[in-house]
Write a structure and sequence with these properties.
This protein is an alpha+beta fold and about 110 residues long. The relative contact order is 0.34. The protein has 3 helices and 6 strands. It has one domain: Dimeric alpha+beta barrel (Alpha-Beta Plaits, 2-Layer Sandwich), CATH 3.30.70.1060. A 4-stranded antiparallel beta sheet has the order 2-5-1-6. A two-stranded antiparallel sheet has the order 3-4.
Length: about 110
């Protein structure tokens, strides 16, 4: 089953971190690629680059930035093809940001 791993971090904290997580993310990406379960994954630009679209009464409006003010922002994602939720949880725990942010796992609905 395909799962989306949504990576949430506090952008303000990430900007002040002195450790470089890119080598760890590279190692994780290499691991899931070699395991044959990687389907997609990318970091996202900062939440300040986001545009939120709402349609109310048939009229679209846009707002700069993310939909909600929160401590943590969506920073990236992976899509992995795991055998079950237990395997997905095990991989989520290996994502570097799990140590200080959070990883939301969502099964992808097959259409």
């Amino acid at each position: 089953m395909r799962y989306m791993f949504l990576i949430y971090d506090a952008e303000a904290e990430m900007a002040t971190r002195t450790d470089n997580l890119m080598p760890e993310y590279g190692a994780f990406s290499e691991e899931v690629t070699k395991a044959g379960i990687m389907r997609a994954g990318d970091p996202l630009q900062s939440s300040g680059s986001a545009t939120t679209v709402r349609v109310r009464s048939g009229k679209a409006s846009t707002t700069d930035g993310p939909f909600a003010e929160t401590k943590e922002q969506l920073g990236g994602y992976y899509i992995l093809d795991c055998k079950d939720l237990d395997e997905a949880i095990a991989y989520a725990a290996k994502i570097p940001s799990a140590r200080f942010g959070s990883i939301e796992i969502r099964p992808i609905m097959e259409m």
